[in-house]
């Protein structure tokens, strides 16, 4: 293609609301154009990237036996009422009314519609397994859309849904998808990790996120450099410490800590490591009657090492806390502890509370905690001697770098990632709610075992940029670059030789199936190079009169610091070789 | 592809709300699935057709120099308020509010958004001409959605918008698009006509509809079999009759016509041709002051031959009627004619009215019209002798078959069509409303000259079926068939020879780039043939043990009445030859 027949539009500056590098670079490179908050036009340059992402996804989904269809963007509310999501979902579900005042939603996903299709179409076990997917516009009315395509309101997602006759078959379908996702992300040419994710109420380990590694990522990814263990922070288990609890050495003592209401302040005041302190978090659970009235509340004290953070997902799975919990009110805290937050602890309680100790805290000796008296902490605290053993010992914290890997193969490391894909075993959650059944071998109706599988098609280019850029602009992997190759002729309007060589190379590459752009805009070399470095085309060939006299052109990969002279006769083969590699 | 890895779902019956053949066949062939009124899932079989339509459109749009982008489905109301369409458009524009109660629309087209892009991006005449297009989901909240994809609410449209610096250039851009449309519709393999259409207030002839010819089409298409004249009914001109008005022969006479309130009844009663009668249509126009109050109304009497119909578009262009008109009220009619409708005419008026005679009526002699007295008509009416010449003579009727062609090359014929494309010169309507300007050669800002160009991507398959079907099902043209070829093996599960031959042919055709499906579902031959005849795959190869013994298979085109024996060794070449033809 020639630039004059395309649309190249670059900007020196990004708008002030572009906070992250991918948003800034996509705006500057003319890939997207803002229409409203979280709503973007995919400009010609950006659309080419999106189409390449779509095509790779489509090829691998088809190869994995999934079948493409397209479900409507605007969906009647009835189906969403069958699963309860029409009422349960928050305002991020865009609800609309048509001219007849009937309720509709603009789809954020399509579980309801695809389950409705399945219950009509898949009537026998003979038709299973089946996997339907679509690559379709979605809408999610984010409270605070930002970061360009990273957290937009309108976006394109590939969503697939598998239907199986039993759990074993569903797990096999899940594994087929997980393998397809690996092929897809391999083809994108990005550094990524498939990490175990929490599968919520369904349980089991059948939930993985595909995270593109980037320092700017929103998510913390936990992995073991010595093994293939990887999980997101919600999921990664902190093992119980290996050794037994040390013997108590120090005496219990009430120590003045005036104005030191955090573990860090106390540790500094006392000149001890933060890891010898224990922090107290007070939660509450409510017992509700049929009329939705609170009939009884229980207060929980969670004890974590001063240098550790609570993991809400893990806490939410503990017996007694798994039906929902909240932070305790100030009144509840004063009622049970006789003290304001900052100096709380498990000793000298006014009223009994449920004490949950993190696995790490449970094996500590001679630790420090609040005295339940303002401006005082207890030091030399020991389980058994100074207070009863905790009611429950559990993993309730986020792992930290250096923790033992759950697979026993070394210690954990942490890096940042951007979630661009998710494979998830759904079980019968939707099929039961919608009475979606098939006739099994025994002739009896049975609900489908389902899985769902998403890829953020428009988010992926943003993640790719977060991972691959420098101070000059984007650096696309070959597979999803808007153009694989750009030919930059110097003085094409003045030199027939340059024009002829440029057009000949262009035609030769096109004939070889290479996605090449000839920049015939007539820009000065500096401006031309700056544009293509900003846009991030991976391979560049510069053709000038001077080189042509010696029969050479200049080749430069976007990551190269300088250009290499290559014989004009060899450049096409060189590029094709590089693209295949 | 193998059927077992795809999704084939056919139905014996169509739902009762499927009124037209394309709707019935698309439902029965499992191409679409209804989700709500006018909202359909494109099922795997139907999506393949849609994707082929999209691909042909995309290739030809790119070839014509248009550049693809994708504008949002959900668009902020602000831009729609700039052109006034947010308020002016009826309830077919789906208006929605986001979580912050801000107004949005679900796009039915994108003139506003693309004009907004142009005014930001196209700053100089050097960047013109430019044509942006998208293939994108649209929504139009039809009052009465019906006919499946023919008149749905959610649909896919290709919409293109050209931007030019002056009218000449805009006309050239228009012609480029009109030529691209001809290539596109040629490639679809459908019988179609490009017909001149009315271009509304903008004037000129720069509006053409692309109509797929089908007996069931909603639109009447006027054409001259001896020339390339073609227009839609709104646009087609009825020429003034060639000869002069004949001399008056009959005397004026008031004739009793009790209970005969229509021209047809009167002609029958009197035993004269319908074409000797004249019908009276009474319209009114209002003069409005600045406070939107009616300060004066004018009553118009339109006279048409009894066998002709009024053309509202033509009437709406007459001087005095071109700012909007309405049918007169009963009170206005009685006030001016002293009579109820059914016996109205231009003689014996109580108050003066503006008389507009159709060109045909203006040259009639000895005609018949209402007497402005219930149960009486006037016969032997003659212009000049019995009443003054009309205030205005104009073309205000629909043409009929046999009328002279406006190009003087014969007589007109009329057939039915389905509009699937439209090219339209917009002028500066949107650019002026939105102050979308570029800097012209003289350095001064100037509004863009625009054109818009649509193709109904999801409507096209329905139109193709209306044109190409028989009692057994759909007959797809090769270019947009879901599969070009289906291989039907007989007893594949019992015969290794059949299985091997079928798979080998499948693989050979796939390698040659042929879109082939191998039906490995194990259905009985009758059911298998019925499915593929319903679905409408154009080329079918049947492979059975009996034929294989003689080294032959059976080939049958969907339009053939019976199969032809072809040597197994030659079938692949035969199919490739047919597909190229």
TrEMBL record, chains A, B:
The EC number(s) this enzyme carries: 6.1.1.15
PROSITE patterns (alphabetical): AA_TRNA_LIGASE_II
Keywords (A to Z) from UniProt: Aminoacyl-tRNA synthetase, ATP-binding, Cytoplasm, Ligase, Nucleotide-binding, Protein biosynthesis
Function: Catalyzes the attachment of proline to tRNA(Pro) in a two-step reaction: proline is first activated by ATP to form Pro-AMP and then transferred to the acceptor end of tRNA(Pro). As ProRS can inadvertently accommodate and process non-cognate amino acids such as alanine and cysteine, to avoid such errors it has two additional distinct editing activities against alanine. One activity is designated as 'pretransfer' editing and involves the tRNA(Pro)-independent hydrolysis of activated Ala-AMP.
Subunit relationships: Homodimer.
PANTHER family listed in its UniProt record: MITOCHONDRIAL RIBOSOME PROTEIN L39/PROLYL-TRNA LIGASE FAMILY MEMBER, PROLINE--TRNA LIGASE
Protein name: Proline--tRNA ligase
Organism: Hydrogenophaga defluvii
């Amino acid at each position: 293609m020639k630039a004059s027949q395309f649309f190249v539009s670059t900007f020196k500056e990004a708008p002030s609301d572009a906070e992250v590098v991918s948003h800034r670079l996509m705006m500057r490179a003319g890939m997207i154009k803002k229409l409203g908050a979280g709503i973007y036009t995919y400009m010609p340059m950006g659309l080419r990237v999106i189409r390449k992402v779509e095509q790779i996804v489509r090829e691998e989904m088809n190869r994995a036996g999934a079948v493409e269809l397209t479900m409507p963007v605007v969906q009647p509310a009835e189906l969403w009422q069958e699963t309860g999501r029409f009422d349960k979902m928050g305002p991020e579900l865009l609800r609309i009314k048509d001219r007849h005042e009937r309720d509709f939603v603009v789809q954020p996903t399509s579980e309801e519609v695809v389950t409705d299709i399945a219950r009509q179409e898949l009537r026998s076990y003979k038709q299973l397994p089946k996997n339907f997917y679509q690559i379709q516009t979605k809408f999610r009315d984010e409270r605070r859309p930002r970061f360009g395509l990273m957290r937009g309101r309108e976006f394109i997602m590939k969503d697939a849904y598998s239907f199986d006759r039993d759990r074993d078959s569903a797990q096999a379908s899940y594994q087929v998808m997980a393998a397809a996702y690996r092929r897809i992300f391999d083809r994108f040419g990005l550094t990524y990790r498939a990490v175990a994710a929490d599968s919520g109420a369904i349980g089991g380990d059948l939930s993985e996120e595909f995270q593109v590694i980037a320092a700017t990522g929103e998510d913390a990814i936990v992995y073991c450099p010595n093994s293939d263990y990887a999980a997101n922070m919600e999921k990664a288990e902190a093992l119980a410490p290996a050794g037994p609890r040390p013997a108590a050495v120090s005496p219990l003592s009430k120590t003045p800590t005036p104005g030191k209401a955090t573990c860090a302040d106390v540790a500094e005041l006392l000149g001890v490591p933060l890891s010898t302190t224990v922090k107290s978090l007070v939660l509450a659970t409510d017992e509700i009657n049929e009329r939705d009235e609170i009939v009884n509340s229980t207060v929980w004290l969670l004890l974590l090492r001063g240098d550790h953070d609570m993991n809400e997902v893990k806490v939410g799975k503990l017996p007694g806390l798994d039906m929902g919990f909240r932070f305790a009110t100030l009144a509840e805290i004063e009622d049970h502890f006789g003290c304001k937050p900052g100096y709380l602890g498990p000793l000298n309680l006014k009223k009994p509370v449920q004490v949950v100790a993190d696995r790490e805290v449970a094996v500590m000796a001679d630790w420090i905690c609040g005295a339940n008296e303002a401006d005082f902490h207890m030091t030399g605290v020991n389980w058994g001697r100074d207070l009863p053993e905790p009611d429950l010992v559990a993993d309730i914290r986020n792992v930290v770098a250096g923790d033992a890997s759950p697979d026993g193969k070394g210690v954990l490391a942490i890096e940042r990632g951007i979630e661009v894909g998710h494979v998830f075993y759904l079980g019968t959650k939707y099929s039961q709610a919608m009475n979606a059944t098939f006739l099994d071998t025994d002739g009896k109706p049975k609900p489908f075992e389902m899985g769902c599988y998403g890829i953020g098609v428009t988010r992926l280019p943003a993640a790719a940029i977060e991972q691959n850029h420098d101070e000059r602009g984007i650096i696309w992997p070959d597979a999803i670059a808007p153009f694989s190759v750009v030919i930059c002729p110097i003085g094409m309007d003045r030199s027939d030789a340059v024009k002829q060589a440029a057009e000949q190379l262009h035609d030769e590459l096109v004939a070889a199936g290479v996605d090449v752009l000839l920049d015939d805009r007539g820009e000065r070399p500096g401006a031309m190079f700056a544009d293509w470095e900003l846009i991030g085309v991976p391979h560049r060939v510069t053709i000038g009169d001077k080189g042509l006299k010696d029969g050479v052109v200049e080749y430069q990969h976007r990551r190269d610091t300088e250009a290499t002279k290559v014989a004009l006769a060899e450049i096409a083969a060189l590029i094709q070789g590089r693209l295949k590699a």
